[in-house]
């Protein structure tokens, strides 16, 4: 029973601390300035083909991607 109590105490204190530090790391990583381009691209996904339907071939798709990024 002593081993269980030790492991429970360890999980309650250090486990909670580890999860909190992981959470803080994820929050910091999301808001890094270097992630701005990825966020800009992902937030415009719903509007990518707003004016016209999705292209059928790769050449049109490449051209529309370049136009959408301007």
TrEMBL record:
<keyword id="KW-0472">Membrane</keyword>
<feature type="region of interest" description="Disordered">
    <location>
        <begin position="37"/>
        <end position="70"/>
    </location>
</feature>
<keyword id="KW-1133">Transmembrane helix</keyword>
<protein>
    <submittedName>
        <fullName>Cbb3-type cytochrome c oxidase subunit 3</fullName>
    </submittedName>
</protein>
<keyword id="KW-0812">Transmembrane</keyword>
<feature type="transmembrane region" description="Helical">
    <location>
        <begin position="14"/>
        <end position="32"/>
    </location>
</feature>
<dbReference type="InterPro" id="IPR008621">
    <property type="entry name" value="Cbb3-typ_cyt_oxidase_comp"/>
</dbReference>
<dbReference type="Pfam" id="PF05545">
    <property type="entry name" value="FixQ"/>
</dbReference>
<feature type="compositionally biased region" description="Basic and acidic residues">
    <location>
        <begin position="38"/>
        <end position="52"/>
    </location>
</feature>
């Amino acid at each position: 029973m002593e081993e269980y109590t030790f492991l429970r105490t360890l999980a309650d204190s250090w486990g909670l601390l580890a999860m909190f530090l992981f959470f803080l790391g994820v929050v910091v990583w999301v808001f890094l300035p270097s992630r701005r381009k990825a966020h800009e691209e992902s937030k415009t996904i719903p509007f990518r083909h707003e004016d016209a339907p999705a292209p059928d071939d790769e050449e049109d798709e490449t051209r529309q991607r370049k136009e959408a990024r301007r």
